[in-house]
Each structure stands twice: as C-alpha cells, then as structure tokens.
Design brief:
182 residues, alpha+beta, Aminopeptidase, 7-stranded mixed sheet, two-stranded antiparallel sheet, 4 helices, 9 strands, disordered N terminus
C-alpha cells in the first residue's frame, strides 16, 4: 500500500498483519494551560469575582458589596485561582469562638471545569479552616448539583440534613459536614 506523506500529526492509514486497514492518529498535545496559582483574594479581584459569580450561578449570587465585606473581613477567607485571569474561588466563613467553619461558596469557571480546580480550591479551603483552628467544615449544596455533591463525597463529607426550599428559586439543599484532620 502506498500513500503520499502526510504531516506528522495527520491521521494515516496503516495495514495490519491481518490485512486490515486502521487509522492511526498521533496525539496532538492540547495547548498548555496557564499555570494556576491559588492565593488570597484581594479587593483588586473584585470585578473578576463578581463576573465569575454571575457566570457560575443563576440564583443566589453573592452581591458585589458582600464580596467587599468578605475580602476585608477577619472572619472570612477568600481563596482565588489565578491563571492570568481569575477562574475560580472558594469562600470560607468563620465565627468567633466556634470550631466549625462554613464553606459559603465555591465556584469554577466553566472553561476550567474538569481540571481538578474545584478539588484544589476545596483542599485549600479546608487547609485555611484547619489553620484557623476549625475542627469541622460545613456547607450547603443544591440537591440537584451532582458534580459538586460528588466532589464533597470524595473529600469525605457526610450528609447532616436536607433543607427544603433553601434557595431563592425553591430548590432544596443538602447540608454536609466533614471533620478536619491534617
């Protein structure tokens, strides 16, 4: 069998020992993803946080003024994923004299879904809570948010309660909790 030479990355037919034709395509590496840095959020991130929030959530979005409060509060930790542009965040809330931290929100831009960024943010949120002396982390998640629920289960969160009509649109929530051990 003869064929003209093809570019290195093009699919090329090859004849197997059994005489069958198969097409072999060499793997073309996808463009490299920019390196992702997890860091503490600052007021300089405000516009990007607000834009990400509006892209990530259809209901119950955090208002700009609330982000300002969280970014400047001693009782909150905002962790952002920065890859040249902000592509995710986690928000952990703390109460004075309480050993229970609350994962208030976590969001990953749709373009970065499936690259374990949610896992990295959740791990960083748990680390922040542990460093602040929290013994457990609690959160609420939409009952129909299967990807998030699966992530929390992989991280060892257990169901504490089911809350009817928790969200503004009437959706139910699952309250999950995990003991923090490092």
């Amino acid at each position: 069998m003869s064929y003209a030479s093809a570019p290195e990355n093009a699919a090329r037919p090859l004849e197997t020992a059994a005489g069958l034709l198969v097409t072999v395509q060499s793997a073309v590496p996808s463009p490299p993803r920019p390196s992702m840095t997890l860091r503490a959020g600052t007021l300089a991130d405000l516009n990007e946080l607000e834009a990400l929030e509006l892209r990530a959530f259809a209901h119950d979005c955090i208002a700009r003024r609330s982000f300002v409060r969280f970014l400047t509060s001693r009782n909150a930790s905002v962790i952002v994923a920065d890859g040249g542009a902000l592509c995710g965040y986690a928000l952990v809330m703390f109460r004075s004299r309480s050993k229970l931290a609350r994962l208030y929100s976590i969001a990953v831009d749709a373009e970065n879904a499936g690259h374990r960024l949610g896992s990295r943010l959740l791990d960083a949120a748990e680390d922040a809570a542990y460093r602040r002396g929290s013994k457990a982390m609690r959160l609420e998640v939409r009952e129909d948010n299967t990807p998030a629920t699966n992530l929390y289960q992989r991280f060892g969160y257990s169901l504490v309660d089911r809350i009817s009509t928790y969200y503004d649109d009437g959706s139910h929530a699952l309250r999950l909790q995990k003991l923090l051990r490092k």
